[in-house]
Amino acid sequence: MQVQNKIVIVTGAGSGIGAATAKHFAKHKATVIVSDIKEGKAKRTADQILDEGGKAAVIPANVASYEEVETLIAKTVDQFGQLDVMVNNAGIGPRNMSKTAEYTLQDWDNVIAVNQTGVFYCMKLALQQMMKQGYGNIVNIASLAGLKASLNNLSYSASKFAVVGMTKSAALEYATKNIRINAVCPGYTESALLNKLLSVRPDMDDMLKSVIPMKRYGQAEEIAEAVVWLASDATKFITGQTITLDGGTSL
């Protein structure tokens, strides 16, 4: 993984895929800005990186706030002089799993604000900095739910389909500017979102595993491997792509 000395922001890095990704970048000698809406969780991830001899700093941010994303990127550049990689991982799911006609306005607004508008804010502001410095790399965390139908999950599915579309559109726009933009689409992965679902519907555990050809959930570390690879200098000719990590579920 050729990411040594790169300055990397990972949003939603307080737990799950975000925390695993932050740690994996640090393992490969990048400097990681650990960002999360919950500062305490971000600090816990950063402390784990520092304890293992890595380089990390904490800058909390709610990606649904344009001003907080501005501050996140401005502080990063002020402190480290550049922004090499932006990993847009922060995301939430709906409070209620409902069919479209019964879907709550609150669940729609909240999920779209973080998963779609938040990614737009982060891309817009990161791209402004990357254009100034003449290079950059963005990796967006989409989902299998952004590639195929997801029942009773309209806002999440809509937001992740949007992330895939934004990734491809922006990659095309900046392909000649030495800026690459890709996305990963995890399937069912052991994470806070999955744990929340299974706590409400424990009966879904066997059902979900039954549709995964590998008969297991993904691990956050497995997703992190793909993110760091896409952000590395080993993938200089890859842009506008979605890498699906789902144990064969989409086959």
From TrEMBL:
Q: In which family does this protein belong, per the annotation?
A: Belongs to the short-chain dehydrogenases/reductases (SDR) family.
Q: Any idea what this protein is called? A: SDR family oxidoreductase
